């Protein structure tokens, strides 16, 4: 599996957590302190990637994305789509 760097959506800095995190370990933004359990963070980032991908496809076909626009993300990732 590809490693994706998780960023704080507000500060755009990488979240910090243990080197080998367990699902229950906490990851958080070193600047604003926004954070959650690893499991929750990864879940939200996966959702973010799916929404970004679907929006890109919708744009290619010049259609509005069915998935929610303008939702507020706590965590994001830089992804090549
Ligand atoms: Zn932050």
Strands ordered across the widest β-sheet: 1-4
Mean pLDDT: 87
State the total count of DSSP E strands: 4
Distance between the termini: 16 Å
Total helix count?
Answer: 1
Radius of gyration: 14 Å
The ordered string of helix (H) and strand (E) elements is EEEHE
% residues in beta strands: 5-15%
Bound molecules: zinc ion
Structural class: alpha+beta
What's the main sheet like?
2 strands, antiparallel
Helix content: 25-40%
How many domains in all? 1
What is the overall silhouette? elongated
Low-pLDDT runs of 5+ residues are none
Task: Describe the 3D structure.
- The protein has 81 residues and is α+β, with helices and mostly antiparallel strands.
- It has one domain (6-77).
- Helix content is 28%, strand content 15%.
- The chain has one helix at 38-60, and strands spanning 6-8, 26-28, 35-37, 75-77.
- It has a two-stranded antiparallel ribbon. It has a two-stranded antiparallel sheet with strand order 2-3.
- A hairpin with a 6-residue loop joins strand 2 and strand 3.
- The longest helix has 23 residues, at 38-60.
- It is elongated, with a radius of gyration of 14 Å.
- The model has no long low-confidence stretch (mean pLDDT 87).
- Zinc ion is lined by residues 8, 10-11, 29, 31-32, 34.
Please summarize what this structure is:
The chain has 81 residues and is α+β, with helices and mostly antiparallel strands. The protein has one helix at residues 38-60; strands spanning 6-8, 26-28, 35-37, 75-77.
